[in-house]
Amino acid sequence: MAEPWHSCIDNELASCERLMEESLSFENAELTEMCRYVVMSGGKRLRPSFCILSYHACGGKDSAVPVSIGSAFEIVHSATLIHDDINDQGEIRRGRKTLHKQYSLTKAIVAGDCMFTVGFRLLSGVASQIVDYIAEASGAMGAGEFIQKDYEHASSVTEEDYMEIISGKTAKLFKACAMSGAYVAGGDEKDVSALGQFAYEVGLAFQIVDDVLDVTGDPGNMGKAVGTDLLEGKPTLPVIYAMQDPQYGGEIRSLFEEPEVSHEHVRRALELISKTDSIPRCFGKAKRLAEGAMSSIDRLEDSVYKTALKDLAAYVVCRDR
Amino acid sequence: MAEPWHSCIDNELASCERLMEESLSFENAELTEMCRYVVMSGGKRLRPSFCILSYHACGGKDSAVPVSIGSAFEIVHSATLIHDDINDQGEIRRGRKTLHKQYSLTKAIVAGDCMFTVGFRLLSGVASQIVDYIAEASGAMGAGEFIQKDYEHASSVTEEDYMEIISGKTAKLFKACAMSGAYVAGGDEKDVSALGQFAYEVGLAFQIVDDVLDVTGDPGNMGKAVGTDLLEGKPTLPVIYAMQDPQYGGEIRSLFEEPEVSHEHVRRALELISKTDSIPRCFGKAKRLAEGAMSSIDRLEDSVYKTALKDLAAYVVCRDR
Description:
homodimer; mainly alpha; 1% strand
C-alpha cells in the first residue's frame, strides 16, 4: 500500500474533526474542555471511516450526511470509553491521563452522559432507522461488558464466550456504523447487510488484535501500559489460548485466577504467554476474520471506496497500535 | 383538591408505564432486569406529566406522541439518577438499594448508558426540535452537577450559586418536557415558551422542596435516609439560609465545611437548622416560584389540563415526599 487506506476520505475525516469539536460545546467551559480532551485526543476514527466509506461504496454523494453520522458514532464511542476507563480503573489512554484521573470521577461520569446526548443530537433529523442500528449496538455493548465482567479472573472462559464479549463490546458498533452509511446512501438491502457483515467481522478482528497488542505491544507506541487487561483479569483471546497450552497452561490459569494481581504476576504471565503458540494463533484468527470480511463485500461494485474498505480490513490486522 | 392533580391523565401515565417497561428490553436478561429495577420502582412521573399536560393544554389530541416523549424523558432522567447515585455514593433510593449497590458499579454505569440510548430511540422519529430541547437540558444538567461538586463543603456558596445549580440539575429538564409536549401539539411559540417557563419555575420550586425534605422529611415516608445531602456536603438552600443565621450560622458553617462528616455532625446540623428561620424561608421561596409559574400560563385557554398544571405546581410545594 503506497497510500494509507484513508486517503480517499481524508477531507471527510477532517470535517468530522471540525464537527466533533464544534458539537462538543457547552455553556460550562470545563464540561466543554473535558469532552474535547477525550474526543480530540487522536484516535483512529475507524467508526466514522466505516460509515463514510460504506456511504460512498453504495454510491452516496453528499458527504455531509455520513460525516454527521460518523461523528455521532465516534462521540458515542468516546463516551463509552470514559465509562470503561472508570470501570477498569484505567489511568492512561492515548498517551495521557484518563478523564476521571485528570478531572474527577463525578465529572467524568457526567461528561460521558453529556457526550451521549451530543451524539444522539447529531443523529436526530437523519433516518430513524439509524437510531435503531445504534440502539441495537448499544444494548449489545452493554451485554458484552456484562459478560466480560462475569468472566473476570475466571479460567473457565471459552473462546465462544470471548467471541460473544467482543461481538457486543466492539463489532456490533462497527456494524452499525457501516450499515448507517450504506443505508443513508440508499444502498439496497443486500449491500447494506453485506457492509454490516464486513464491518462486524473487521470489528472482531480489530478487537482480537487490540487484545494481542495489550500483551505484545510497545508501551511507547501504544500510549498506554502493556498488560493492563491481565492486571484487571479481563478474559482475552491471548490468555484463553495460552491457558490451553499443555506445558504452560496450568501456571497461566493459576495466575489468571489470582484476584489480587501484582505487576510481578503480570510480568510472569506475559513471559509465559510468549512461550506458547497463543499470539500466532490469535493473529491467524484475526486474519481469517479479515479475509472473510473482505469476501463479504465482493458483491459491491468496484470503487476506490471498496478498495479502501479492504485496505482498512488489512490495516486492522497488521497495525502495531 | 378533591381529585389528585394527575387524574385527567391517568390513562396516559399508565401507557407510559407500559411503554417504558416494553422499551427497556434487551437480549441480556440481567441488563433488562437492572433497567426495569430503576425505572419501574415508582417515582412521581412528573416529567411525563409535564409533557402530557402541556400537550393537551395546547390542544393536542393524539396521546401516543406525548406518551412516547414523556417516557423518553423519564428514562433519560432515570439514567442520570443511576449515575448520580454512583457519584453521591447513595445507598437507598425509593425505599430500596440503589442500582450500583444491588448489582455492581460497573454494571450500573453500563445500564445507565443503555438507558440513555433507549430514551433517545423513543425520541427518534419525533420532531428534531425535541432533541434540541433535551440536548440543551442535558448540557445544563452536566453544568449543574459540576457547580454543585465545586461547592461541596464550601460555606462561601450563595443563594445565586444554588439557583444556578438547581436550574441545571432539575429545572431545565422540566422545561424541556413541557416545551416538547407543547411543541408537538402545535402550540404557538408564545404558548410553548410560557409552558417552558412554567415548568422551569415549578422545577426550581420542586428542587427547593426536595432539599428541604432532606432536612425535615420522615425517613419512612421518603424511602431514603434524611440528612444525606449534609452527609455529602451538598450545597442546598436550607443550609445556605441557615448559615446566614446570626445566632447559629457560625456553627452550621463549621459543620458544613467539615470534609469528613459523621452522623453525629449531621444530627447536630439538622438540630441547628431547625432552630433558624431557614425552613420557612425555603418554603416561602418555593411558594413564590410556584405562584409565579402559575401566572405564566394565564395566557393559555382554560381547560382541565391547565387546571391540572396549576394543581401540579401547588402539589410540588405542599408534598411531603
